[in-house]
Write a sequence for this structure.
């Protein structure tokens, strides 16, 4: 998936929608922002949601007079695409470079390593 880049603010809205099960009413999005201590203006949120629709990340459905926004891209798809961008940009396409950096920074513990090995074996054996 080579989706266009989205801003940090747009990503915040996507995270709200993903955490709501992939779809949320405008009012639910505003409520979630308020719970996070964000006091974004209505027009700002509407503009960001419109951009996400234009970029193909969201679809919008009318429910009476209310808008429901649904993710057209899953969180896993977005993460995979962004990881590929990172690997290409910083590590010349070498995922090994990324993993080595994570190990050097101790971002991956020995326990994580064992879990990753199990995951790798399951994926290779078609059980993932």
């Amino acid at each position: 998936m080579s989706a266009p880049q989205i801003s940090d603010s747009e990503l915040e809205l996507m995270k709200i929608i993903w955490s709501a099960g992939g779809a949320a009413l405008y009012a639910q999005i505003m409520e979630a922002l308020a719970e996070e201590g964000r006091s974004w203006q209505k027009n700002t949120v509407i503009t960001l949601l419109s951009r996400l629709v234009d970029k193909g990340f969201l679809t919008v459905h009318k429910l009476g007079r209310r808008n429901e926004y649904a993710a057209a891209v899953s969180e896993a798809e977005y993460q995979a695409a962004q990881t590929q961008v990172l690997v290409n940009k910083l590590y010349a396409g070498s995922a090994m470079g990324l993993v080595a950096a994570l190990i050097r920074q101790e971002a991956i513990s020995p326990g994580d390593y064992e879990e990753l090995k199990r995951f790798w074996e399951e994926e290779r054996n078609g059980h993932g």
The CA atoms of residues 2 and 29 lie 26 Å apart. The mean pLDDT is 91. The longest strand covers residues 58-63. The beta strands are 23-25, 58-63, 66-71.
